Amino acid sequence: MSAADLSVQDLTVRYGSTVALRGLSLDVAQGSTLMLTGPNGAGKSTLCKSLIGWVRPASGALLWQGQSLAGLSPEDIAARGIAMIPEGRHVFGSLSVIDNLRVAATRRRDRAGIAADLDRLLAVFPMLQPRLQQAAGMLSGGQQQMLVIARALMGRPRLLVIDEPSLGLAPQVTDQVYATLRQLQAEQGLSLLIVEQSSRRAAAMSSPLVLLREGQAVLRGPASQIDADTLERAYFGDD
Ligand code: ATP
């Protein structure tokens, strides 16, 4: 087993009197994928938001490559190599596709590096190439999902956290998105933490899986070793 890139240790997050995460621990190994699943309100998005500094944990630790992320701003966390794609595919609809990608590099000064990254990303996302001058809002749902992934990669993250990449996409388009993520991982050694509300879709990735319910990990393991019945019972809480 390779070293953990990300280590979440005994994390508790509260919103007022609501406890969204209760002592959650999990690891994402370097260059690997962790699928996080669970029903509505389980705390999945809260974990994503904690990782990038949008919400402050009440207790516990978040370690990235052995160093604590406590107290860091979202900008500092991004600079350390963690990017998050929130639920809902937020493209800048009236900007062109190419400008959506360039916006993500506004803080970078290495023009040659930016151009090289754009070329590299267009090789991974060839469907964007003929649409570079189109308004991003005119793209299909699947194309927008590819665009937000490509945009996040312009910051050269080491860990990409994606909240519900398949939301509202046809199964075939979802398969394409996942195939692209696998390709990126194989080529770039990217670590991935992917939230999927559908436990079946999460298990289909045949990666390590953590099932959250009411803020706690109630099932975990390699997806290949969890049978469909066990998964369903853990998800609906009749275990
Ligand atoms: P979903 O798939 O519905 O987004 P989730 O698993 O991502 O669910 P969270 O959004 O993390 O779950 O929510 C976990 C709990 O925290 C829920 O009880 C939710 O109502 C509550 N919650 C989330 N955000 C807030 C907030 N800003 N203020 C108060 N309570 C919140």
UniProtKB/TrEMBL annotation:
Keyword annotations of the record: ATP-binding, Nucleotide-binding
Protein name, per record: ABC transporter ATP-binding protein
Species whose genome carries this gene: Amphibiibacter pelophylacis
